[in-house]
Write a structure and sequence with these properties.
The chain contains 10 helices and no strands. The chain starts with a helix and ends with a helix.
Length: 246
């Protein structure tokens, strides 16, 4: 499978299952309505597991622009593939969250809460404070990427000198899913833990474009936080890794 197609498919799976679990918990008259934060965190962790297990062998299963940028910063992948990865991840986020919307369309129609509808697509802060919300996203992404860098601590070249794709797929899907589950439980409360620009931006675009009954604003004023925070976290993780001598 083409690496960019793999990233599209993996991110679509991530967002279909991830936004789907939020819809199941938040929207009215679902089987999982009001089942709580642990269900959401577990659902996201398992969504990562599924995505990594499916496409890790093809692209490294970054499924996150912050992961892609971080691995490029530490010279584990070529910068030449970064734009294509990020585009594929963002488009996958749009597609996956659209599928989740279609699965729950009748429940969106039953909801009279525009904020809840947006929450099924994109992240938002429990207490709105852009600076501190960004700090939370930086910390969550830093934890994610420090772990990923040491999980994926293999040489970037084969013995014959040929480049080797290094990414989340190199560690197996279970540890990464558990890592995301842990971040959600421990650090997800303030902002809903995007820790992934494509996880937030793709679904936010879908929310803006889809004919969702009674939807409100897509809250573009907040949209930069789950993009900038994870990218800063990626740069910090790369810096720590390089200073530590990898």
């Amino acid at each position: 499978m083409n690496i960019y197609l793999a990233e599209f498919v993996g991110t679509a799976l991530l967002l279909l299952l991830g936004t789907g679990v939020v819809a199941n918990v938040v929207l009215p008259k679902t089987k999982g309505n009001a089942s709580g934060w642990i269900v959401i965190a577990a659902g996201w962790g398992m969504a990562v597991f599924v995505a990594v297990a499916c496409i890790g062998q093809y692209s490294g299963a970054h499924i996150n622009p912050a992961v892609t940028v971080c691995l490029a910063l530490v010279d584990k992948i070529s910068w030449s593939i970064v734009p294509g990865y990020i585009l594929a991840q963002t488009l996958g986020g749009i597609f996956g969250s659209t599928l989740a919307y279609l699965a729950y369309q009748r429940h969106y129609a039953q909801s009279g809460d525009p904020a809840a509808k947006l929450a099924t697509f994109s992240t938002g802060p429990a207490i709105r404070s852009m600076g501190w919300n960004t700090v939370t996203e930086v910390i969550g992404t830093l934890v994610l990427l420090i772990a990923v860098l040491y999980f994926a601590g293999a040489d970037a070249k084969a013995p014959n000198g040929e480049p080797v794709m290094v990414g989340l797929g190199s560690v197996g899907a279970v540890p990464v899913g558990l890592l995301v589950f842990a971040i959600g439980l421990s650090l997800g409360g303030p902002t809903g833990y995007a820790i992934n620009p494509a996880r937030d931006l793709g679904p936010r675009i879908a929310h803006a474009l889809l004919p969702i009954p009674g939807k409100g604003s897509s809250d573009w004023g907040y949209a930069w936080v789950p993009i900038v925070g994870p990218l800063i976290g990626a740069a910090l993780a790369a810096g720590i890794y390089l200073l530590a001598g990898s």
